[in-house]
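Progress against Task 2.4 (sequence-to-structure conversion) is shown through the following example record, which the project officer requested during the mid-term review.
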Amino acid sequence: MPHSVSSQIQPQAACVILARGGSKGVPGKNLRPVGGVSLIGRAVRAARAATQIAGVYVSTDDAAIAAEAALHGAKIIDRPAELSGDTATSEAGWLHAVPVMQQDLPHLSRLVFLQCTSPFITGQDIDGCLNEMTARAADCALSVTEDHSFLWGLDASGMGVGTNHNEREQRKRRQDLPPQYCESGAIYCVALEPFLRTGQRFCGTVALYPVDHPPIEIDTLQDFALCSQLAQAGGRSEIASERLAAVKAIVMDFDGVHTDNLVTTDQNGVESVRTSRGDGMGISHLRDSGQFEMMILSKERNPVVLKRAEKLKLEVHHSVDDKVAALQEWLAERGLGWQDLLYVGNDVNDRGAMEHAGLSACPSDSHPDILGIADWILPLPGGHGALRAMSDVIMSVVAK
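Structure tokens generated for the chain above:
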């Protein structure tokens, strides 16, 4: 029996990110980078990576934030001044955004609210939180971190008393304490109907979704410094491990990827560039793993490209103007397809290759047009450890 039209309608979920421009604690906070990507950019990219999100919206009163959010793929909602002050609630901003989203998504049934100040959200986290809400048949859900702390309060006389343990008994192990959770402050999911009815993020039964990203909400410059160090630490990426595990070939541009995109020219016209020993070590790890076909693909005609490739023991194709055609042939010769390729580029001449590749990456100082389309923005600039960071993440997946 054929399905009715109504039975084929799929409910839709959308993500809303509030990002006002008037932060007083850290001016311009939402535009400051962590791991080479602004806070608003990181939130938008996480939402776009979630498989269940049909639309990503940023509500803002700031033109610079709007431009940055749009660069990373968000639709912009103009947030009125009365909803952008210090006393305005998040719920008021979210409710304001709903009619705009419903115009694009007539079957909208679930909302996801992300906080820019939690920079380590992933698409998998968002999908997981939505799945937990569905599995529990809950009205809402939130991301939490497991907390194994010994908590204390004060009794009527002002003396300390255990709240999740009895301080007068033998000390328990942390793992033996009753389960407890702390809001991570990153993700809040709601079913649309009860949210509109109550106007509250906790609009009925609540499901909890534990996440394992660092439980840090950025409020100070010290928080930024800590998160930047974490973002640059080896083995951490917003790219799903399954997607990384599918990579069979790695092809890299040269200038701006292996180098810092600068060139020194002497009085005889001889050019030299700078490369990173750390990047070289990372490339050697990938090469020696035997897991990947690897190549440097460059438009540059400078012999320095050949010399660096020789040092790295990598195949090199240089003086290449049509990178897509060159890659098509190279992949076919190895029995591979575009879906097997990780391509690393940094400028507009890499765009075609990046759009064809199954996974694309770029250093954090790449051209804005490339930052906007790259699947993976590496946490460091070209020639300053971007490829080492990439290698560390990939090798952590290979080692599993």
